[in-house]
Design brief:
Blueprint (H helix, E strand, L loop, with lengths): L10 H32 L10 H4 L1 H14 L6 H15 L3 H11 L8 H7 L1 H18 L3 H24 L9 H20 L13 H28 L2 H21 L6 H10 L5 H22 L3 H9 L10 H23 L4 H19 L4 H38 L1
Amino acid sequence: MAAEAGWRPRHPVVETAAAHAFAHIIYKALLLMSAGSVLYMTGKRKCTDLGGLFRSMPLTTVCGIIGALSISSFPLTSGFISKSMISQAAADEVLTVVWLLSAVGLAGFFNLPDATSLLLFSPILTFGVIVFVNQGWLHGNLRFSALGGLFIIESSSKFLIAAGLVWLGWSAWTYLAIPLSVALVAAASFIMTRQSQTKAAEPHLTQFPRRFFSASLLAGASAVAFLNLDVVLAQHFLAPDLAGQYALLSLVGKMIYFLGALPNIFMITLVSRDEGLQRNPAVVFRYLLISTVLLTSLGFLLLGPAGATVVPYLLGPKAVVIVPWLWAYTLAIALFTISNSIVTYHLARRHYWYPVLSLIVSLFMVAGIVGSHGGIANIVGVILSVSLAGFVAVATLHLLSVISGYIQRSEEHT
């Protein structure tokens, strides 16, 4: 049924694209965190104000160089391997001419069947960097209203541009809504940061937070693994039609995760602020956790129990085939989303065993899928079992830390 509907995945292209997406997340995160560590240490956001940081920040220098080499497809890096896989898949799919053109024009970074679309998408690289840097500055300065405005501008402009292109009869060019919306957000973010900019403080270098940096990498790797590696493994182990169905199921799960994780983007900023002001960060955490639980529950109820009606309405009749697994899978993602909020809070409090536990849970999920992959039901069962166990473990550790802190404060008062 799914294959006849025309959405059967083709293994070489899908698997290499997934591998490159995973590698891209890792080295792009490395670059962004390297830039963030420089901003954190120096308080400067202009490269012209910096120089000689390799002496005082050697680890950041090494990490930044590794990320730059990987994004440039330097041999022996993950970017070189994944992009080489993409080029080989393109050749296997009789897209040699397109590959040669893209290799000449864009150094083999992307592979799409239309060279024009490659050229039109290339400005995203520049505009995307501008957006990420400006969003990081707005986060650090608690300009949350400006950040909300950027999210609204991006989503609304993307929708309006796409709708306008369709209305004009240019449906084949609707993908232009993505680079155009990113360009608008880049311009808006530049204006907002210029309006909100205050006098930068003098550089003040402190010891590089190696443990926090490492724990942040673990937490990020855990979320990436839990939300993406199951799709890669499903595409590897399942038949093409079942792999396509699981990819659609995973899309539903990501809707719940990104809805529930909205308050989580404020967690580290607000908790760190309260700790710096010698205030109890547990108060902010409770508000953010309650918001996460409410949003996650809303997503779960709409896409889980009511999924038989809502999901086909959102994704079309093709989604009917995944209805039997919606309940279990959406519950698993909801539990992981709430667990991730608790882990992020303790990461901000420098309780580094929580990210380690989160990564262990993700690795158990991978091992479980490798051991039991007879069908979608088996994979969903593994994910639900692992996410439930992880939620219980994280919640138990959190409650124990709360009780321990309460006992310690009581003893101090007595």
